[in-house]
Fold each of these.
Amino acid sequence: MSDSYQSFEYDVLVIGAGGAGLRAAIEASAAGCKTGLVCKSLLGKAHTVMAEGGIAAALGTLDSRDSWRQHFCDTLIGGNFANHWRMAQIHAQQAPDRVRELEKWGAVFDRTSDGKGNINVRHFGGHTYKRLAHVGDRTGLELIRTLQDKGVHSGIEVHMECTIFSLLKDGDRIAGAYGYFRETGRPVLFKAKSVILSTGGIGKLYRVNSNSWECTGDGFALAYLAGAELADMEYVQFHPTGMVWPPSVRGLLITEGVRGEGGVLKNNKGERFMFKYIPPKYQGKYADTEAEANAWFQNVVVEGQKEETVKERKPPELMSRDVTSRAIWTEIKEGRGTEHSGIYLDIASRRTPEDIKRKLPSMYHQFKQLADVDITKVPMEIAPTCHYMMGGIKVDPETQMSTVPGLFAAGECSAGMHGSNRLGGNSLSDLVVFGKLAGEHAAAFAKAHSTPKVDESSLIQMEKEMNRPFENQGGEVSYSLLADLQTVMERGAGMYREEALLDQGLKDLTALRDRLKKVSAEGNRLFNPGWHVALDLRNMLIVGEAITRAARERKESRGGHTRTDCPGYSKDFAKKRIVVRQNNGSMEVVQEDLPQIPLELENELIQEHLLKPEIMKQLRGEAPMVS
Ligand SMILES: Cc1cc2nc3c(=O)[nH]c(=O)nc-3n(C[C@H](O)[C@H](O)[C@H](O)COP(=O)(O)OP(=O)(O)OC[C@H]3O[C@@H](n4cnc5c(N)ncnc54)[C@H](O)[C@@H]3O)c2cc1C
């Protein structure tokens, strides 16, 4: 057996080379650990490269009122108080240093126009102040380029186009990982003292999504199968603005930066409808008339005046994603959508063609080249698209270690930071803040522990499982199962959920699991995408079940989780998080107490008027919602 696979040994193995994985690997390597980095795609092509609008950090370069405390409060309010408060605090406190560090490592952020050479920041939904450092609308590309440059010079060994199929354990603790090279199909064993999962999100479980092909939820399933707990799996984010037309580009994301640069949402009557949807938590913070919103746009966006010097409030198009998605969905459902079941996003009538091309170059090209739509002339047709997973592997906020000793997680596959809804820009900062912490603590764990033993006989069983699609001759192809899974998830646990649909979803998932046992792959292990999808489906079905079970358990509506049969926040669930884990081969769902922000800190923030007690009571289900 040992002749048939390649074998590598590391102190720290990082699985995933997006922003989180690269940052983690840099840190582990800097701590003197022999570090390996594995990724499904080529280095530099991870999903992070698609990030557009920016990275959120309270740098205060354009507004001196900004602070980590304000960023922290915005994140909690945006997440509807379902965040792990300590993760949100660490993130807000450390994000500015991580952004400055990126700059030191060579990231060329856009600069302010005041001649002071500061990093420019832009508006994004749910952030009180301009807070997103950016590189046009190609921020993810710059982040990856910078981290990759730094990483390859740090002695990290990279294994590209390699998929991890299983984690390995020595007793309770992690011992490494086993997988295959996508090109040759050749198996590979990685022995490691600690392992970091940074495998990104789950978007490919849904038919309409903005994610790259890699986002099949592998890390969630690998961790679950290794005995780790998953948390907050009911919270899936549907970004308000995905392309709806033409069908070939359905789901592709339109950055929130379009609205940050003045874009407005209109229904088929030409009405700017967002004014009707300002929820209590945002009342007083956003303009409630078009005249006020337009004056703010003119003063702040067009003329570049400082926000604190203008009396108007920001337009409601800049509210958080959950609120905006729900408003768009309601307009479409009530018959005020476009002919392709979307809503108009109009920047053409607000900015000059030159401004649009300069500020939003990727958006301009995306529409022009892929859809033959000139966004400097006509509005875009958009609708919500599955975009981000707030839930994931449950980790300790200080170390990022999961409930399995030696197994760490960072980035989109970990849970806690964003609560029930992520604010735009808070993912890229999450990656570098918690990527660094995961790398640091995985290295410390590796130094403190001896080399674990790998039971090589268990690899025979894994090989059997991996080869099963070749033995199921004449069975169903993996792509039809994938398409059905996406439909089941959209119907059962999509943007709107209810108990009967979730129950049906669970039945459908059981049927899909049975079908997976018979899925077959043609040919052999040499670059064989049909086989790859068959193996990914195991993970996707586990993640789909976890989302559906968690969504069934949370009998309230909060952030990205909307139950039409349980509208509004519930007191019973406000301080609970839903945890999913394996128990005797079955998926168990339990409610745990969600750690609460210390009273002393809460009172300080209330005294500073950063948190409002009446809003907190509403979010905690302790006071009725008033609109
Ligand atoms: C279009 C778009 C625009 C966005 N814009 C922004 C923005 O402006 N600001 C912001 O904050 N966020 C933005 N986001 C969200 C953000 O980009 C992601 O949340 C973030 O990049 C996730 O990074 P990650 O490091 O966790 O994982 P990823 O970048 O998804 O990387 C995952 C890595 O894991 C690897 N991997 C997965 N499974 C396996 C396996 N089984 N074996 C081996 N390797 C594996 C992949 O190959 C990849 O290298 C945007 C998202 C999209 C889709």
Note: Residues 299 and 310 are 7 Å apart (CA to CA).
Amino acid sequence: MSIKKISAIAIAGLLAASVVATVAQDAFVAPATPEEAVEARQALMREDGGILRSAAGLSGAEAVAAMQTIKTNYSHIPALFPEGSIVGDSEALPAIWENWDAFVAIAKSGEDAAAAAAAAAEAGDADGYAAALKTLGGTCGACHQQFRG
Ligand code: HEC
């Protein structure tokens, strides 16, 4: 095989690897139906709840990874609430779409708090981590109070 051919194959391999890496980083696909949206957001909420319950006991790389997962999950919240998607056992309230900006703002503040918690954990700042966790936890209740029936 010529050097040219070998390097072409190597480059193709590298490109394929980088596509896989990009997908693996955030494989999020917006739901196609209201049923899918409800299922996906309920699963996301349960995952966040599970992580948050153990988060106070984490530190270092484990805490960073946990907070990055929550940050990514929070960034998906708006896309998981397509307008009027109240089907099946959904507890979502119509208020979500009547106050969309407020709904998105709570999700964004949670995303920021998770990022702050990850940064604090990375820096070994236990107090900063605890404070950011508290802010993050506050966004769960703030949103449920207004937007979950
Ligand atoms: C921006 C708004 C918002 C935020 C932030 C939010 N939630 Fe929710 N959550 C909802 C809504 C709306 C529902 C109802 C979804 C449905 O049933 O369609 C819900 C549902 C849930 C459920 C029920 C899932 C099920 O199986 O039915 C749990 C558990 C939950 N949230 C936990 C959390 C936790 C823990 C946090 C914080 C880490 C959180 N949520 C943050 C809006 C939010």
Note: The pocket of heme C is lined by residues 38, 41-42, 45-46, 48-49, 52, 77, 90-92, 103, 106-107, 110, 139-140, 143-144, 147-148 (CB under 6 Å).
Amino acid sequence: MPTLFAKIIFTFTALFSQNIDRDWDQGRYDTQLLSFQVNTFSSGYSIPWGMAFLPSGELLVSDISGSLWRVSKNGRKKRKIGNSLSVYYKGQGGLLDVQVHPDFELNKLIYMCYSDIKHKNRSHTTVARAVLNDHQLENFQIIYQVPEQLFTKISRHFGSRIVFDDAGYLYFSIGDRGMRDQAQDITLPNGKIHRIHDDGSIPKDNPFYHQKGAARTIWTYGNRNPQGLAIHPITGTIWEAEHGPRGGDELNIIYKGHNYGWPVITHGINYIGTKITNFTYKEGMDQPVWHWTPSIAVCGIQFYDGEAFQPWQNNLLAASLKFERLHRVVIENGEKVDEEIIFDAGSRVRDVEVGPMGLIYVALEDPGRIVQLSPLRKTPDLNRRN
Ligand SMILES: [Ca+2]
Ligand SMILES: [Ca+2]
């Protein structure tokens, strides 16, 4: 009889947890400037690591496990895109970001960055592009890959995000790969933001293009583990978010050839509490626009440029893995002037994206799913006295 009893309990638990899974994200949130509704948009992921909208309004989702998905406009259907990526799915490694070419309607190109794998489980961050034909990738092409001798068994700090600027250059990030001092070494690719053309060729006006021995794709250096990149909708500047050690998560504006300091300067300390450096400032190294200390484990970032959440226009949305929240950061003249936690997700927040109708899409972990934020009219405060 204990077996039958256990079975009944199990069935009950299963039914109950299914209900929770379906409904637990739904709710109304009231914030300083407006209220919004949260609904589940798409589920069934390991970790939805990156998101990018196609001009059709469909959403591409890169899952860390290596699967790439094409999700219908209303989120009800998702289909796996066949790919032959050699993804090292371990530790922080896997399929990372996905991005759509600015001229997708003409060339159907999509871009992916991922933890590539070589023999003996050595890995590094690679960038590839392919033509997306319905649910197949065609003309798959690796457009950035480090020399094989730099592949390592270390399975952390791969970065990585991809953005295109207004002039069509492609930027992507690689973390320090756990070898912090190498972030200052411009002959090595790790701990850097890179800039290439959309076909992988290297622009001749890159800052170290003509410097002997330098990795010519480098745009900036001294970046610890950047997992957020976004273009400011008005100024066109590139904004970057990177994980600090313990403390010192950074928000930076990315300028050609600049040194962002890691590990010579940082506002963080080692995880075990010991000091990394005595310095938070040094001549020739950029200070962050903002640093989160203690660390929020900042991941994906995106500027809000839609109409639906009008009061949030040009604000930066930032994902926090550690505190499981979505932040809204108000920026004026390149400086942070205010910050609000707008969504307490209750799950690690991996990425954020703005859809073609101005709705906000948030990628959450455990279980891997995407929720949709849509605005509600703010309820008048009945207790307020003027
Ligand atoms: Ca994206
Ligand atoms: Ca820094």
Note: Confidence is low (pLDDT under 50) at residues 9-22.
Amino acid sequence: MALRLAHGKIAQVLPQAAFESLPASALPVTDLDGSTVLSAFVDPHVHLDKGDLCAAGLAPERDLFTAITRVRDDYARWSAEELTRRMEFALRSAYAHGTRALNSYCDWSVPQGPLAWRVLQDLRTQWAGRVDLTITSLAPIAELDDATIAATIAATVAEGGGVLGWFIYPGAPMHLLPRAFDLAQRHDLRLDFHVDEHLDPPQANLGAVARLAHERDWGARTVCGHACVLAALEPAAREALLNDVAASGLGLVSLPWTNLYLQDNGSGPTEGRRRTPSRRGLLPVHEVRARGIPLAFASDNHRDPFFPGGDLDPLQTLSLAALAAQLDEPIRDWADTITCQGARLLHLSWDGVLREGAPADLVIHPGRDSVEVVSRPTRGRRVLRSGQWLAPADALPPDFRELDGLRRAA
Ligand SMILES: [Zn+2]
């Protein structure tokens, strides 16, 4: 295949034979020698506000709720300057890896309102056209019990052009869920849920979200992340739940880094010595895709108490998923999970399909097939944005040493 680029867009997509038969032209030609060409990446589930808290002195935890508590305890030490440093570091990394759009959650700390929300708003303006930011509020669903707080969150999100997000956890007050849909419909907002980030079938709540999204005809505007519990359900129960999700039209996001790290991680009062996990927090992606449910992979946490690793690199995420979920042909058959599917879930203006007229926003990897790409996902990658290679200073992720002294500077 050959692409002709002009004015920052794909002007023509040609089969190789047709390209070779064209008369010689004065235009520069780059021979990619069989390299893999992908649409620039979309990362629909990232926590920029928490990113690199390890560099700020917080330790990784092995349990979701302990990590949540550690981060909440840390809110008081967050400043606009420190948040900006951590978030810009992440955005520069994502941009270097070839990401063109990402969705960041923003913890909604009640009652003072999120400082991080304002910082993210500023960064969205500054980074527009490089990494287009969607910003999603993230509050526990229990906050819907206070009509004033809930209305304030929804109004702020609507004013800031964001997405209304809620955290649904085991034992959550699910009778409040209809209020999330009420607010979304009143303000014409998309909805996003962190749901079922656990492996305890009796505590599954994804079905309630799916059924309500279906009832309210809001499925195409609803995304659910995690849903790890699907991995723990008996086959018949899993099938029934996936059928409800498919009927609703909502999309799912799988977060392999954090959920392979956090789930069945041997934490808790009865646990002592380290042990090897046997139950994995992996969304059953084959079964999800088989039902036509929109599915994207995403980064989730990076270098914070939830996960001491990650670098906001969708191609590395897909390479991990290829192993963890046993994906055959991850590049040929699953690359859309880090490109087009995320674009669909975020309602972006470009769907990520490489066609004539599309932006020339490309990631080019020297690997010629799935085996070569996932074996060396980070080696030799080049990123083209609006038809131009990234400048050398932008083409490498920043050095971790830039984060030294984070807390002292804050
Ligand atoms: Zn998350």
Note: Residues 80-97 form the longest helix (18 residues).
